[in-house]
Backbone:
């Protein structure tokens, strides 16, 4: 699946590393007891610590530590029992302390890995460099006044996990798959809600290019705070093309921070960050090293849920699904649970087809979520039972499903109410078959003369005259017996 | 260790301290003296000694995940040079 960009001087490949800022799910902030809830009135969820008042001392929130360790374990990463908080110094209006408390050379989580589920059903492993805990900054709002920026510190001090990949990604598509999978894992672990629109998951992309076949790492540009997976992909595509154009015109790329303009679909230099890279990290003198016990890590490990990769493998083994279907179903915990409820004690392939086909289509069409589905898993399961026991033909089942979406009623009730039950009464079917045969003597002769493909047409006519309620297998059998003898 | 004028200017800029050109020489001298003084510490052989991050042999205490602070925007904004509608306001910073 090599992604190659053709330039004037030859073929190029992209080298991408992603830094994801994932907001930790916790009630209170990383170092203060102020609330983290999204959307509150400005500055109502701010303690003196978050506002950078003098003399205030940070004390770490245990749950945030637990969430970071849990995420590390979910990424099969090394957990560092001792880690150190450092100050990252820079000036910005929404950073009242004048520094961000982060982790530098001793993060809480070291190297791990993440497995990409490729569209062809294959997989590719991408390295995780590290995960560290840090504070979020406040929020600047620029459109409330012509000459002023408005600052809300509610987000200031909220715990973030910065998850850094190795520069292992080679295409915009892989970057998208990485983010999708990471979000899926975070949601399974319940350590971050993964909501990119609300900013609880944000992505910086480090992009460079090199001639195909080369193993060098050229200077990279960092594209900041892109807030959707699609935009990350667009930004990478644009940025790679820009690098190639610069190199092919004899120029050089210098390391810099850039901004993605989603309206114009391009990146541009952030001049304010020109001199900002000198962060003068040093260990935060207000905070002792964070030391956790192996037993703490072990107890978190023991409580980990079944994660997407394991669930996918189990779905393939237990239900006989192919890699692609299993990958789609496990991407969200809720859809995996939905499928399992439908498939339990039933034909799993049939369950998979119904969930991935008509059900997902209905989800899209109604705009509902899997948590509040248009048809419950129990009702979909009951519908499959009705197909299995011969009450409904496949075609009738689709009609019933549409009615289920429309009315929210259980399939058995709809079948009863609308008289949709499949006709398996030999006498009734025979009458319908005889009527069609009698009315089409010419076509009967054609079949007898060898044009047996016309039998399908007869089946269609019988189904039509019975409003789709005749059992198609019985119709077929009867037709060929009566016409061909 | 000695600092040149350009480095002193960069440090001042990063710290948002305004330093006049005629002060740079003097400051470079003073800062260099401080660094040289502290550098004496490197004469001590610390091979195999773990870095000491605190004089107290204790680890960081943790707090429970409980919301017990905040909810006083008036106090938070009390010292703000400028505020409006519950926000701090600053000269426009946007790209």
Residues:
């Amino acid at each position: 699946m090599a992604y190659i960009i053709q330039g004037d001087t030859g073929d190029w490949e992209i080298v991408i590393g992603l830094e994801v800022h994932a907001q930790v799910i916790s009630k209170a902030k990383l170092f203060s007891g102020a609330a983290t809830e999204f959307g509150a009135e400005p500055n109502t969820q701010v303690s003196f610590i978050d506002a950078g008042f003098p003399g205030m001392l940070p004390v770490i929130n245990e749950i945030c530590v637990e969430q970071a360790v849990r995420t590390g374990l979910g990424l099969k990463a090394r957990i560092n029992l001792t880690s150190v908080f450092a100050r990252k110094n820079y000036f910005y209006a929404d950073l009242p302390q004048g520094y961000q408390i982060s982790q530098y050379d001793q993060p809480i989580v070291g190297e791990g890995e993440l497995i990409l589920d490729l569209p062809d059903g294959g997989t590719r492993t991408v390295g995780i460099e590290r995960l560290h805990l840090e504070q979020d900054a406040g929020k600047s709002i620029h459109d409330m006044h012509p000459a002023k920026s408005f600052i809300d510190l509610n987000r200031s001090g909220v715990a973030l996990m910065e998850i850094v990949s190795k520069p292992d990604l080679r295409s915009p598509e892989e970057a998208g798959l990485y983010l999708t999978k990471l979000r899926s894992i975070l949601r399974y672990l319940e350590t971050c809600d993964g909501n990119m629109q609300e900013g609880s998951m944000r992505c910086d992309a480090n992009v460079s290019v090199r001639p195909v076949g080369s193993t060098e790492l050229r200077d990279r540009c960092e594209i900041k705070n892109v807030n959707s997976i699609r935009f990350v992909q667009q930004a990478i595509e644009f940025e790679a093309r820009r690098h190639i154009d610069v190199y092919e015109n004899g120029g050089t790329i210098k390391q810099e921070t850039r901004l993605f303009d989603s309206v114009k679909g391009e990146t541009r230099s952030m001049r304010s960050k020109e001199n900002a890279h000198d962060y003068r990290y040093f260990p935060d003198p207000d905070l002792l090293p964070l030391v956790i016990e192996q037993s703490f890590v072990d107890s978190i490990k023991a409580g980990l849920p079944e994660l997407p990769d394991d669930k996918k493998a189990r779905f393939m083994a237990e239900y006989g699904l192919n890699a692609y279907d299993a990958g789609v179903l496990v991407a969200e915990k809720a859809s995996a649970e939905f499928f399992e409820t439908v498939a339990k004690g039933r034909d799993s392939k049939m369950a998979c087809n119904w969930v991935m086909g008509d059900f997902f289509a209905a989800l899209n069409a109604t705009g509902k979520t899997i948590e509040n589905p248009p048809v419950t898993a129990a009702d979909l399961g009951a519908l499959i039972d009705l197909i299995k026991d011969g009450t409904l033909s496949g075609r009738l089942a689709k009609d019933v499903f549409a009615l289920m979406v429309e009315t929210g009623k259980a399939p058995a009730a709809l079948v009863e109410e609308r008289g949709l039950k499949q006709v398996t009464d030999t006498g009734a079917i025979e009458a319908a078959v005889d009527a069609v045969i009698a009315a089409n003597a010419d076509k009967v002769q054609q079949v007898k003369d060898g044009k047996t493909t016309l039998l399908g047409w007869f089946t269609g006519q019988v189904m039509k005259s019975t409003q789709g309620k005749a059992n198609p297998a019985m119709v077929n059998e009867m037709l060929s017996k009566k016409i061909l003898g | 260790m000695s600092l040149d004028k350009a480095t002193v200017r960069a440090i001042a800029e990063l710290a948002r301290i305004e330093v006049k050109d005629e002060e740079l020489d003097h400051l470079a001298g003073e800062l260099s003296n401080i660094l040289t003084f502290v550098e004496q510490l490197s004469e001590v052989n610390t091979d195999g000694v773990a870095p000491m991050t605190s004089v107290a042999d204790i680890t960081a205490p943790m707090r429970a995940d409980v919301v017990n602070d905040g909810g006083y925007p008036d106090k938070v904004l009390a010292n703000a040079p400028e505020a409006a509608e519950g926000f701090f306001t600053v000269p426009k910073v946007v790209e």
Summary: The domain at 426-484 of chain A is CATH 1.10.10.410 (Arc Repressor Mutant, subunit A).
